[in-house]
Amino acid sequence: MMRIRNILFTCFIALLASCSSVKNKPTADTKLKFLDEYIFPASVVIADAEVGGLSGIDNYKDKYLLVCDDSRNPRFYTAEININNKKIDTVIFTDVTFFKPDDPFTETTFLDLESILYHPEEDAVLVSSEGSINTSRDPSIFKVTVDGSFVNSYEIPSYFYAESEAKPRHNGLFEGLTKSVDNNGFWVGTELPLETDGEEPTTKENYSPVRITYYDWKSEKPKFQFIYPLDKIEKAPKGDFAVNGLSDLFAISDKKFLVLERSYSSGWGDESNGLKIYEVDASKSENTLDTHNLAENRLKPVSKKLAFDLESIRKGLQENTIDNIEGICYGPTLPNGNKTLILISDNNFNSLNPQINQFLLFEIVK
């Protein structure tokens, strides 16, 4: 009898492992292959500002722009990322741009910068900020010149205001930006649900919708919005904190996106962070732009398919660490014609735990 029980127990464990592997198996049409990792050293200083807090990245001519989320000294960097033989050869930060302090907007707006886009037709830079909800400072989306001079800010729906009845969550607003594929506009995604929209992700299944909003360049006003459902938290925290949210998004066709879902569960050491890349098709989504309470209306969110779970490459990374991944953009096209993606991490300037400036290179396999 004991032998039979052991066999049954072993089969049960194998079944659980099988279910887990099936659950995390990529099913998206977009096929991603991990190529390489590069860690930029800590404590490198350019123009008296430390390189770190890398929260967003975009292509800039033959280089890259990377935004820093240091609210005490908001800035963005220019960098070269050199790829050879499907490997990241070098990352060189060549310049840093500070925002001009003589404009009323940058003087009065709390700049917790999370994402960045370069607009080549205007030779301008678009930036998103989460604001500071705890101190009643509104989030924002605004445009500056490449030298940091303020151009204008964008109208945002009233439910995103810090003191709105929708009750936005602190550190839970404009986290991701991506240009539309036709370059007629851009999309911005929130990290966490508004309190009246739904719950924050927990270890249980919840209704946790975040809003992804489209703006067109000409009117500079929001035109369309859909909701994206966040996963539950897979790892129960061993400490007192856990979170899962949208950290960036990337348009790959008209209404098809790659979305980065970044998770953190305290107490797991080097395994505290996780990241999944989902493929989302919003072509049949409902427009939620004028819907002020998603929890009451329960509009159907878009479906999503797993494109890549970084847990599958953790043991192959230099420190067996998936860091705080917050940015994504195209890298160079490979000799075989396939496009690449570059992901970057925000090391939080090591203010909480030892972290790294992590660059990850992926190939989009045809």
Q: How are the strands of the largest sheet arranged?
A: 1-22-21-20
- The helicity comes to under 10%
Q: What amount of the residues lies in strands?
A: 35-45%
Integer average pLDDT: 92
Order of helices and strands: HEEEEEEEHEEEEEEEEEEEHEEEE
**Rg over C-alpha atoms, rounded to the nearest angstrom:** 21 Å
- The assigned structural class equals mainly beta
Notes on the protein architecture:
- This protein has 366 residues and is mostly beta strands.
- Helix content is 8%, strand content 43%.
- It has 3 helices and 22 strands.
- The chain has helices at 2-23, 104-108, 294-297, and strands spanning 31-40, 45-46, 49-50, 54-60, 63-68, 75-84, 87-98, 113-119, 124-129, 140-145, 150-153, 174-179, 185-190, 209-216, 222-229, 242-253, 256-265, 273-281, 304-309, 325-330, 340-345, 357-365.
- The strands form 6 sheets. The chain has a 4-stranded antiparallel beta sheet with strand order 1-22-21-20, with no helix packed on it. The protein has a 4-stranded antiparallel beta sheet with strand order 4-5-6-7, with no helix packed on it.
- Strand 8 (113-119) and strand 9 form a beta hairpin.
- The longest helix is centred in the N-terminal third of the chain and has 22 residues, at 2-23.
- The chain is globular and about 50 Å long.
- The N and C termini lie far apart (53 Å).
- Residues 1-22 have low confidence and may be disordered.
- Residues 1-22 form the signal peptide.
- It comes from Joostella atrarenae.
- Keywords: Signal.
